[in-house]
Each structure stands twice: as C-alpha cells, then as structure tokens.
Amino acid sequence: MRTAIASARRVVVKAGSSSLTTPDGAIDAARIDALVDALAGWRTPDGGRGREVVFVSSGAIAAGMSPLGLPVRPRDLAIQQAAASVGQGLLIARYASSFARYGLGVGQVLLTADDMMRRSHHRNARRTLEQLLAFGVVPIVNENDTVATDEIRFGDNDRLAALVAHLVRADALILLSDVDALYTGDPRLPGSRRIEHVRGPADLDGVRLGGSGRVGTGGMVTKVEAARIAGVPVVLTDAASVRQALAGEDAGTYFHPPVTRPSARRQWLAHATTGQGRLRLDPGAVEAVVRRGKSLLPAGITGVEGDFSAGDPVDLCDEQGGLIARGLVNYDAGEIPDLMGRSTRWLARELGPEYEREIIHRDDLVVLANPETPSRSAAG
C-alpha cells in the first residue's frame, strides 16, 4: 500500500489526449465517463466533500481534429489553434455532462506558460483554483492552445500538471498515459520490465524513454521530468488503472517525493519561469549564492546579457557560462554595468541610498546547481 497516495486529500490528475479520444481523434465519451466515474468515486466515497481533485486535461486539439476533417495532428500553428478553439468547447461540455451525473459542477481554467511565469498571473490562477475547490467544483485545467505559441509544445500538459500540483499544494499527482507504467524499454518488446519505484536518478540508469503517442505531444521523457519537479508523490499509469492508483494500490510506477518539499515560490522560480537575461558571476559570488545561500551583490557580477527589467527572472551563470541559479532582479539590465564590481556601501555613498540593495535578494533566488558539487568557478 502506497500510504502517501491512499491518505491524500487533494490530488491533481492529468490525462493525455490518447486517454480521452478515439483513434481518429474524436472525443471518446465512454473513456471520459469511465475516468469521471473513478474521479467522482474517489472524491466523494461517502457522499461527503472531504477530498478534492484538480483535473488537468489534454485533448483540445485532438478533439477538434475530427470536426475539422483533420486525419492527423496538424503541424501548422494556426491550424493547431483553430482545432483547439473547436475542440475545447466540445471537451468541456463533455466533462460538464459527465460530472453532472454525480451532482458535480466543473470550472474551466485555461493557462499559458506566461501565466505560470508571471508572478501576478500565478497568484491569480492559484486564487481561482482555490475558490473553485472551496465551492466544491472540479477544476478542469488545460493549456490555452487557442492563443499559445511555444507553450503548445509544453509536454502534453505533463509539466503543466506538475506546476499545478505546486500551485494548489496538492498531496499527490497522478499522470495517466496510454502505457500502464514506466518500463526499462519499449513495453511491446521482450525483455522490457516494469519499474515499480523510482526513488532517484539512479533508478533510471539504462532506461530508454520513448516518444509521444498518436495524438499527443508528450511522452515518457516529459512524464519523468514532471515527476521530478512535482515535489509530491507521483504515480504514472494508464487511465484503466486510475482507481487503483488513487487507492494507493500497486499500479503503475511510483515516484517517491523528495525528503523535503521545496517552497512553492522557489519551485515556481525554478520550473515555471524562463530567464529573461543572464548575469555572469565571479567565483566568490558563485560560492556565496550556491553554497552559502547568500543574496547576489553587485560586487560579484562580471557580465550582463539580455534586455530585462526590474522584477524579471534572470539566470545566474558562472564564468564558463554554466547555469547555477535563477532569481528576480532588482534592476534594469541597463543599470547593472555601472554597478558591477562595486560594494553596496560605495554605491549608496556615491549614488544614493536607493542603491544600497542587492541585485537579487536570497528570498527571490533559487539555486539550480547541486550545492554538493562545487561549480567549476567556485572550485577555481
């Protein structure tokens, strides 16, 4: 028994396109009803409201393919967006009808990568999801593929599901695929064996991760990455096994969570943001940021790249260009060259007290390098 899953009170469940559609891309009502049966049954086992589920659903583009006469998933961005526009309405209507059999309402929440990256949007999304859950409504989350660009290739919503798990402080994440577990190789070939537990990277040594399915965009690579960043217990299995997965039974592959769950803010910085520029650090600054948990001061910066504004996320790199951290910068890119190499005390005396502040405060900074492995710069 996987007790962390069995005792979970708030769970994010993600289903890929291949779990929701027929081979020709049309919505499969029977599959959706079966999935909703499992989710509603887990959520209200005794008719109460003690458990909460957030459902992350792919399938908008896939659902729009059949009505538009598209035999295969389109590659053209405009056609993808048109298919999503048609399919999203069909998909949410199907969910509303299916959950209504249990007296449950649904609320559609469409997100983009930009919504996850911008802190104010991130907070608004969290408030919306929390309020829906407070009303007893089942949030149905999907990418806003009708206006998306880069985010359409967001990993078939796997990474989005992991970020939503952080957003709502979920207790567990269930990733549903068209394969019942993670295998050491192609499960259709002899010699491939199911991996029951993943406790760390060593358990994945020698594992060959396959690509995406017939109508999705993700694959095992994106699912393993989602499990890595989720910060909570994760089960990877197929839609037919979702009841067993939610019950904590031996279904699929169980990814053990980290010993200490990172803060939501630092996980947001690490996995939901993209650096809008780069700052190069000298060895002393690398040591201070990575190993001693200090703020980044002007004295440790040796170079600035990119055009960013105060408040933007920027990447911190060592002198060889290796990524070590990311943080929210307190200055515009154009201001920093005049500050580099200076102490905050000198800057305050020469330029004014408003310059006696960090380039990036340690509370707005997440280390991406392994602090147990010194950076090449810090090692000298």
Automatic annotation (TrEMBL):
Q: Which reaction(s) are listed as its catalytic activity?
A: L-glutamate + ATP = L-glutamyl 5-phosphate + ADP
The Enzyme Commission number assigned here is: 2.7.2.11
What residues does the PUA domain cover? Answer: 277-356
Q: Which GO terms describe its molecular function?
A: ATP binding; glutamate 5-kinase activity; RNA binding
One of its GO biological process terms is: L-proline biosynthetic process
Q: Where does ATP bind?
A: 14, 177-178, 217-223
Keyword Magnesium on entry: no
Q: Could you tell me the keywords of this UniProt record?
A: Amino-acid biosynthesis, ATP-binding, Cytoplasm, Kinase, Nucleotide-binding, Proline biosynthesis, Transferase
Q: What is this protein called?
A: Glutamate 5-kinase
To which species is this protein native?
A: Actinoallomurus iriomotensis
